[in-house]
């Protein structure tokens, strides 16, 4: 009755629940695993430590996933890996040692070998991040990164800026390319004052405060500098703010990810709905594990929001 309450009458269910409460009954997970062949255990990777700013983004996702897993009857196991090859080797070890039910993958990218490895072995999984440049053969949840920088650029246009620069990551990153696309599309369609060449307003660099400062300094010392900057991360945006202060120039700045540091320093930033994304990942994985999932892999594209503060 506990596992299939729909097969008995409502009055019977009520009496059984009363008895469960009176006796203090708790489900024996080990016994259930023996009967169902399921561990109710899923695994997700902890990202390598970075600058302590944007690394907190996936930490918040992990908290959300853990919160969502418990009500669904699942537990979350964490593991580390330095790169794709090491992560795939870890899959093999974990599946052998712990009889995992499935995985939640993060940080998807072009040519991602992890998804094909799991799919070839019929291991259930979902990804937080779309299958960039690959056929959509598995369930995924993502945030609309282009919509985030579109909102940031639109805000700056609405406040009078026309030369709006972009500090992003090198081409080839699915997330980074999408964030650049939102800025470029919005600025290009901004009307007769739209810049003739957007490449003159964009700089690509690796993520970090110091690299963000160097990139912003490059843009702000050009003959016709931008008056505002949209950045692909809060780390880059913090560097841009530092560069503007060093040069003694006013420059509106918008970051991405709405980290705790952005909140502390008053940085306008794009916020990702991480708790909602984690909950949706858990829902999709539970559907696959408990019911086989839909015939067509499910996907969910969530909308970010712009959090306005002092910098824009």
Record keyword descriptors for this entry:
312 residues; alpha/beta; Rossmann fold; 3 domains; 6-stranded mixed sheet; 11 helices; 12 strands; DNA-binding; HTH_LacI; DNA-binding LacI/PurR family transcriptional regulator; transcription regulation; transcription
List the helices and strands and how they pair.
Layout: H1 10-23, H2 29-36, E1 41-46, H3 55-69, E2 75-80, H4 84-98, E3 102-106, H5 113-120, E4 125-128, E5 140-143, H6 145-158, E6 164-168, H7 174-188, E7 202-204, H8 209-220, E8 228-231, H9 234-247, E9 252-256, H10 260-265, E10 268-271, H11 274-291, E11 299-302, E12 305-307
Parallel strand pairs: 1-2, 1-3, 3-4, 4-5, 5-11, 6-7, 6-8, 8-9, 9-10
Antiparallel strand pairs: 10-12
Would you kindly provide a written description of the structure presented here, covering whatever features stand out?
- The chain is of the alpha/beta class and 312 residues long.
- It folds into three domains: 1-34, no CATH class; 35-142 and 274-301, Rossmann fold (3-Layer(aba) Sandwich), CATH 3.40.50.2300; 145-271, Response regulator (Rossmann fold).
- It is 45% helix and 17% strand.
- The strands form two sheets. The chain has a six-stranded parallel beta sheet with strand order 2-1-3-4-5-11, with helices on both faces. A six-stranded mixed beta sheet has the order 7-6-8-9-10-12, with helices on both faces.
- Strand 8, helix 9 and strand 9 (252-256) form a beta-alpha-beta unit.
- The model is unreliable at 25-36 (pLDDT under 50).
- Keywords: DNA-binding, Transcription, Transcription regulation.
- Residues 1-36 form the HTH lacI-type domain.
- This is DNA-binding LacI/PurR family transcriptional regulator.
- InterPro entries: HTH_LacI, LacI/GalR-like_sensor, Lambda_DNA-bd_dom_sf, Peripla_BP_I.
- GO terms for molecular function: DNA-binding transcription factor activity; transcription cis-regulatory region binding.
